[in-house]
Design goal:
The structure holds two protein chains of two kinds. Chain A contains no helices and eleven strands. Chain A is mainly β. Chain B contains no helices and twelve strands. The chains are: A mainly beta, B mainly beta.
C-alpha cells in the first residue's frame, strides 16, 4: 500500500513565487497534518485538519495555507515564498486524534 | 504550553553497546500520549511506539525498550546490543490536549551513530 505520498520530492523556488506541495493518503484517515523540519528544531506543526472540510492553524502557520476538500488530499500552498521557508516539509495522517501519525516521505524545498 | 526536551543532541556508540535516549516532557494535561519516532538517513519518519499516560508499565520490543516514569515526566528509550542499522535521528513526541488541534509536539531529536 502507498500510505502517504508527497510531491514533489524536492524543489528549488525563487523568492516571491507561489507553490503548492501535494499530499495524498490512501488509508482513509480522518486527520491530516503538515509539519516543517528544520535542523535542531525537530518538527513544527504548520496546519492541520481533523476531518474533510475543516482546517486549523498550527504553531507556525504564517505564509502557508491549506485546504481539505476531501478525505485523501491535503495540499499546502505557499503564496509568496521567502527564504525562511527553506525546509523539509512532512505531511502526516492519523486515524483519529491522539492516534499515532504516519508520515509521508517529505518534500525538500529551497527558496532562493 | 507543552514541551518535549531531548537533551542529548548526538550520541556515538560502538556496535553491541547498550544506549539510552532521554526524553523529558512538560504538560498540564492528565491524559496524554507519548511517542517515539525514528528517522533513518533516508529521511522518512518511522513510528516506533505510543504510550498513554495511564500506563506506566515498561515496554519491550525485541532490542528496544521504553521506560515511562510519570513522577519524573520522562519517557526514555533504550536500545540493547546496538547495531549499525540503528543509526538514525530519534524523536520523542507528546500529544496535544484534545481541544481540537490533536497534533504532536516534538523534541529536537537525538542523532545516534552506531560505529561498527
Amino acid at each position: 500500500t502507498a500510505g502517504i505520498t508527497q510531491a514533489p520530492t524536492s524543489q528549488i523556488l525563487a523568492a516571491g513565487r507561489s507553490m503548492t506541495l501535494r499530499c495524498t493518503q490512501d488509508m482513509r484517515h480522518n486527520a491530516m497534518y503538515w509539519y516543517r523540519q528544520d535542523l535542531g528544531l525537530g518538527l513544527r506543526l504548520i496546519h492541520y485538519s481533523n476531518t474533510a472540510g475543516t482546517t486549523g492553524k498550527g504553531e507556525v502557520p504564517d505564509g502557508y495555507s491549506v485546504s481539505r476538500a476531501n478525505t485523501d488530499d491535503f495540499p499546502l500552498t505557499l503564496a509568496s515564498a521567502v527564504p525562511s521557508q527553506t525546509s523539509v516539509y512532512f505531511c502526516a495522517s492519523s486515524a483519529q486524534g491522539l492516534s499515532e501519525q504516519y508520515f509521508g516521505p517529505g518534500t525538500r524545498l529551497t527558496v532562493t | 504550553a507543552q514541551k518535549v526536551t531531548q537533551a542529548q543532541t548526538e550520541i556515538s556508540v560502538v556496535e553491541k553497546e547498550d544506549v539510552t535516549l532521554d526524553c523529558v516532557y512538560e504538560t498540564r494535561d492528565t491524559t496524554y500520549y507519548l511517542f517515539w519516532y525514528k528517522q533513518p538517513p533516508s529521511g522518512e519518519l518511522v513510528f516506533l511506539i505510543r504510550r498513554n499516560s495511564f500506563d506506566e508499565q515498561n515496554e519491550i520490543s525485541g532490542r528496544y525498550s521504553w521506560n515511562f516514569q510519570k513522577s519524573t515526566s520522562s519517557f526514555n528509550f533504550t536500545i540493547t546490543a546496538s547495531q549499525v542499522v540503528d543509526s538514525a535521528v530519534y524523536f520523542c513526541a507528546l500529544s496535544e490536549p484534545d481541544t481540537g488541534r490533536r497534533a504532536l509536539t516534538f523534541g529536537s531529536g537525538t542523532r545516534l551513530q552506531v560505529q561498527p
